[in-house]
Amino acid sequence: MSIRVGKAAKAPAFPIAAHKALENNQLRANVRRATTTIRNKRALRVEEMPDWESLRSAGAAIKQHTLAHLDHYLEEFVRNCERAGGKVHWARDADEANSIAINLIRTYTPKDSTAPVEVIKVKTMTSDEIQMNHALEREGIVPIETDLADMIVQLGKDEPSHIVVPALHKNRTEIRDIFRASMAQPELTDQPEDLTAAARKYLRERFLRTKIAVSGANFAIADTGSVCVVESEGNGRMCLTLPEVLITLVGIEKVIPSFGDLEVFLQTLPRSATGERMNPYNSLWTGVTPGDGPQHFHVILLDNGRTKLLEDEMERETLQCIRCAACLNACPVYRETGGHAYGSIYSGPIGAILSPQLQSLEHSRSLPYASTLCGACYEVCPVKINIPEVLIHLRGRVVREDQKTLKGKLGVENIAMQAAATIFRSERRYEASQRLARIGQLAFERKGLLTNLPGMAGGWTATRDLKPIPSHSFRDWWKSRNNTTWSPKSNMSQGGAN
Amino acid sequence: MHYNTGYHGEAVPLVRRFVELFRDAETVCVPSASCVAMMREHYELIARNEDDPRLLAEVQALLPRVFEFSELLTKKLKVTDVGAHFPHSVTYHPSCHSLRMLNIREEPLTLLRAVDGLNLIELPNREQCCGFGGTFAVKNMDVSTAMLAEKKACVIETKADVVTSLDNSCLMNIWGGLHRDGSSVRTVHIAEILNSVKGLAGGNA
Question: Domain 4Fe-4S ferredoxin-type spans what residues (chain A) (predicted)?
Fold first, then answer.
């Protein structure tokens, strides 16, 4: 098995990658501007919905039910999709999915063809998860991204930094430079109309000459065997209708029981993702139709670690995700660092729980800690994934795995946590440690302040001042108060404002 | 701190100790929204994971009597004007856990508006996290500092003399950053503002 999520296994730890991202002011300005815009648009489109909370609950309920009976609904989808003329393939992991796709592309390429084999792609994060483009390129197949943002990322030899808006970290001028370099248009301006025209010309040529397309899917519908893709540009629609062969890669968690369930998700997804009431393009197709659209339709159902999550009720919640990225736009951590710091194509809060669970935890052990647990992600999630709760659950796994090793046991953090747990359990020990700390802190006190603490606490005082433990604590005051008549004065003389 | 950082086993005796200390209390008033959030969101889960029905029953019996400070005043005691005097311009930072876990929104503002002499100024982008996040502040020091920078800028923009909140942890973070910058803005827990009366140190400080 080769379960992997993009390049995540080789990515540096989050704090290290974040440090680098924070030094890039242009990137930070781009991310802030873009996330603020989408966040505000979303808020507007959610506020106008009187039944938003019911829609969230309904979405969560549908997903929970499906995940609890995933085998049943997947089999139903396969039956109905194949009855309509599609062919379904099962892929256990990234390598299997890629080799199925490569074999299909080879099968449908004329044997006497001398031109390089090209495939056009509809935005699909799942193909990035399995690094399909690299796999195709190794086989001499040229993947062409047609989603505008994916195209920018591909031409700029970059990585996606956002689930819905992969080039969110780039501004117009940077995009112009990428287009100038890769489209032989040295005079191109950064005006939206000019950029769009350049992209259209580049893409139309490829839409018309390419015979094979690879797509992802937002939903796979069990009772009809249909597949659904929602998008804003229409480039997806081109890929789904013009080529002769369509290969659709679907994570197994994307299945929903019935066509009627779209009623919920087609209301919550566009509002959450882009702040639109409805996506401009909602494409639904069922098998093949003679004389209309692709005549060969294949679905690759991808596991790549997903079934592992089904076992645990809390971990299973992660699979409810419909990839709207509202949590990224709401996250104050993502807002500062952008997506690349997460070292995975799944970034932001959902990435921080998805990547460590899909692949082995040791490859992304810093991700569950890349959050203040502020809860902004949970608040906006259209399928009510309690991301903070899952983060805490994963932190528990990291700690338990650490404590099994000698290095982990002797780690500063573990020792401090054990000591604190012992101290917090007893008033006597708590008071004694407070007295001790009052003495200990004298070594670091300057003008009544702690500004340069050693060890982990140094992470605090590098950028923040800290007040020493006061000579008279709340506990002391509480005790003395019991012996005297209470008056506001006796209170205020002790505490005072910070 | 233990539970949120992943030290789940270590948190269990602390839950037991809390229950032991407060099981006979008529009402438990907690001056930290974050602590109340930990109790309400996780104590039952901790007891369940321990497979300890007795602890679970005790937690369930105790929790309805636990109140965050501003909740206790407004929801249980139905008090909004405590007769305080605090002649300063004040801005309120709604801590994440008070806002999103306890759903405390208007209560502290109602209390602050009733304080004599207090000029309440709205904090821009107030619902955004200050970057504290417990051990996050040291484990992800750079990001925490960047988040704090945004919060500091919003505070400075209000020109308020005082920032208040329901959580001292946020205030410790915000004060730490502001003071390092040389700012004279003070951070004061809401209980201290409500405890200030005319002619006394707190009211005039």
Answer: 312-333
Interface contact B140-A464, CB threshold 8 A: no
Maximum C-alpha span of chain B: 55
Identify how many contiguous H helices and E strands chain A contains and give both numbers. 25, 12
Under CATH, what is the fold of the domain B89-204? Rossmann fold (3.40.50)
- Tell me what ipTM this predicted complex has: 0.94
Residue B94 reports pLDDT greater than 60: yes
Question: Residue A477: what pLDDT?
Answer: 83
Q: How far is CA B41 from CA A57, A106, A390, B30, in A?
A: 19, 54, 13, 15
Give B33-84 pLDDT, tens digit per residue.
999 999 999 999 999 999 999 999 999 999 999 999 999 999 999 999 999 9
* Partners of residue A396 in chain B, C-beta under 8 Å: 6-8
pLDDT reported for residue A497: 42
Compute chain B's Rg from CA coordinates.
18
Which DSSP helix (H) or strand (E) runs through A309? Answer: helix A306-310
Can you tell me the distance from the alpha carbon of A248 to that of A225, in angstroms, rounded to the nearest whole number? 13
When pLDDT is cut at 50, 70 and 90, the band that residue B205 belongs to is very low
Dihedral Cα A10, A15, A18, A23, nearest 10 deg = -120
**Domain residue ranges of chain B, discontinuous segments joined by +:** 2-75, 89-204
State how far Cα A126 lies from the chain centre.
12
Outline where A84-164 has alpha helix (H): 94-107, 125-129, 132-138, 148-155
Check if the beta carbon of residue A58 is closer than 8 Å to that of residue A265: no
Burial of A362 (0-12, 13-18, 19+ CB in 10 A): exposed
Better pLDDT: B120 or A449: B120
* pLDDT at residue A416, rounded to an integer: 84
**Closest residue on chain A to B6 (Cα):** A396
Q: How far is A56 from chain B (nearest CA, A)?
A: 16
Sheet holding A219-221, edge to edge: A255-256, A219-221, A226-231, A281-286
**Residues of B whose CB is below 8 A from A337:** 143, 146
Q: Which domains does chain A have, with CATH numbers?
A: 41-169+211-309 (3.40.50.10420), 412-482 (no CATH)
pLDDT at A172: 92
B132 at interface of A, judged by CB pairs closer than 8 A: yes
Task: Give the model confidence (pLDDT) of B10-28 as tens digits.
Answer: 899 999 999 999 999 999 9
